[in-house]
Write a structure and sequence with these properties.
It comes from Poecile atricapillus (Black-capped chickadee). By secondary structure, the protein is mainly β. It is built from 6 helices and 23 strands.
Length: 547
């Protein structure tokens, strides 16, 4: 009937307006107070930033995709302009599906329900519901109608931004840490893109170890992480078993869960450490989660154990590199280094994206590591990372006999001093990215020859005897919070000449490596100028009657 149809249209027109402002939505805005590259909706980006963009990573931003008609924010770049400009349009988008929502008139889904005030009558009920370490954040209004189905997006969450807790089915991803004391608290959430490493003390009882949830692997992997479209299960990446004396063994298979149990007055398979590794896209969507476990045994005498937890985030299709500061270097952290891949005759930004590892798997600048035997030929391969701000000296002894060949010996000593693959570049900042060419400082290599040493090898030749690395750095940025920046690195190889050694004779030559850090910061200039000197003489009674 017409009156019923008119009443329905009136209710539709009076329905609450959508609460989502698509002009303020930005799923690619991941950095706090910084402009994200190619994120055209980032409010932190200026027109100068937009002029450097190559494309818009998120060209269209919409609200609820199930609405029949809604606003859509469209972003694009005008490359013909000089400089290029960002173009923003707000258009009406029509859903072609016949099954769509005409109006969002479910008021209980648009507003927060007023919290229940504790009273003597409902105090016990509220304590049972909210007194634990975690509780459900969903309002009761979702379950007012038992026959009503959950909305399609009830279990979905938006793409994550920096620092936002990583949500799971029941609450959030736990990263136990000490809060007030050194005891473990399981209420610490893991923040997105926030790398953390914690250690805390857990109270244990061997008789009840199989019932303590925090000692079980299931406690850390039984909840799926909520992503933007689907749920991501936490897989077991590896399992390391630690004995009572500290010996660790990597298990060949991690498919079988090892739950804590009591065996011969020992609690075995107890979780001693968990290392989460989260993989995400450039738009903040979590696509993979893995956990590496360290399991150990607990004796019956132990009343508590120390657990360690760590979480790291890596963007897909990128190689993770450990940072040594943000942005400037931190004293005591390794100096980051790498080398340019072969086959490229000129430096370019995309070449540094493939920066290979320098002298070890952590892309660090390293020197020879001293050993107890002090034998150079046995010390080959033993490296120590160069720590920023720490002057270091190491070395070994070379025993030379008449039977040694000079050229192979010289190459071996060079490998001992420089490592198998000496880096070509050093990161100027502790957080320098591989694609930022200007943030990598080339290492200048020098060769110096010393005077001849008598009574030595057959057919005199040159052998390297020392490597000296000088790192020049400066204080960069504000005087209130200066950041350490490396501006120059010089590696000097010193060689000496060897002559023939009589048969049956031996000689020992010291081989040394050293690192020196030099602060070349200019002293801060005063913000004021000195008062000019006035060369005049006051009258003798100028201050009369005062002396």
């Amino acid at each position: 009937p017409a009156d019923i149809r008119d009443a329905a249209q009136t209710r539709a027109r009076s329905a609450p307006a959508p609460v989502t402002d698509v002009a303020r939505l930005c799923v690619c805005d991941l950095l706090v107070a910084q402009c994200d590259v190619n994120c055209c909706c980032d409010p932190d980006c200026s027109p100068e930033d937009f002029s450097l963009f190559t494309s818009c990573s998120v060209p269209v931003v919409t609200g609820d995709s199930q609405l029949c008609s809604q606003k859509a924010a469209v972003y694009s770049l005008d490359v013909d302009a000089n400089p290029p400009e960002r173009i923003f349009k707000l258009i009406d988008q029509v859903n072609p599906s016949i099954f769509c929502i005409h109006a969002t008139n479910y008021k209980q889904a648009l507003y927060l329900k007023s919290p229940e005030i504790p009273t003597p009558e409902n105090f016990d009920q509220l304590l049972d519901k909210f007194g634990g370490a975690t509780f459900s954040a969903e309002p009761d209004s979702w379950n007012l109608d038992a026959d009503a189905q959950n909305p399609p997006d009830a279990n979905e969450t938006s793409r994550y931004e920096y620092g936002v807790p990583v949500q799971t089915e029941d609450a959030f991803l736990r990263l136990p840490s000490p809060v007030v004391s050194s005891w473990c608290s399981d209420t610490n959430p893991a923040g997105f893109l926030v790398n953390q490493a914690t250690k805390c003390i857990r109270s244990v009882s061997v008789e009840k170890c199989d019932s303590i949830q925090a000692l079980s692997m299931l406690f850390y992997i039984n909840s799926s992480i909520l992503a933007s479209v689907f749920q991501v299960n936490i897989t077991v990446q590896s399992i390391v078993v630690q004995s009572l004396n500290g010996m660790r063994t990597l298990l060949s298979s991690s498919d079988v869960l090892r739950l804590p149990m009591v065996l011969d007055e020992l609690c075995i398979n107890a979780v001693l450490g968990v290392n989460y590794h989260i993989t995400h896209t450039d738009t903040g969507e979590i696509i993979e989660a893995a956990a590496a476990f360290v399991l150990g045994a607990i004796s019956k005498e132990a009343l508590s154990i120390e657990q360690s937890f760590e979480i790291s985030f890596t963007q897909e299709n990128t190689q993770p590199l450990p940072l040594s500061g943000n942005p400037g270097y931190v004293v005591g952290l390794p100096v980051r280094a790498g080398f340019q891949p072969q086959g490229y005759p000129f430096p370019a930004a995309f070449l540094f994206a493939a920066l290979a590892l320098s002298s070890n798997k952590h892309s660090q600048l390293t020197i020879l590591q001293s050993t107890s035997t002090q034998d150079c030929l046995a010390a080959q391969g033993a490296r120590a990372p160069v720590l920023f701000g720490y002057n270091m000296v190491s070395g070994c002894k070379l025993r030379i006999t008449a039977a040694m060949k000079c050229q192979p010996l010289a190459q071996t000593l060079l490998d001992v001093l420089k490592g198998q693959s000496f880096p070509e570049y050093v990161a100027s900042f502790g957080n320098s990215q591989t694609q930022d060419v200007l943030d990598w400082v080339p290492i200048t290599q020098l060769h110096i020859s010393e005077q001849m040493i008598s009574h030595t090898l057959q057919n005199s030749c040159q052998i390297p005897v020392s490597l000296g690395i000088e790192v020049k750095w400066t204080k960069y940025g504000s005087l209130v919070n200066p950041q350490a920046r490396i501006v120059n690195v010089t590696a000097t190889i010193t060689s000496t000449t060897l002559k023939q050694l009589p048969s049956g004779r031996e000689r020992i030559i010291p081989i040394t490596s050293s690192v020196v850090f030099t602060d070349i910061s200019s002293p801060a200039e005063p913000s004021y100028k000195a008062w000019p000197t006035i060369n005049i003489k006051l009258p003798f009674d100028f201050f009369y009657p005062f002396v």
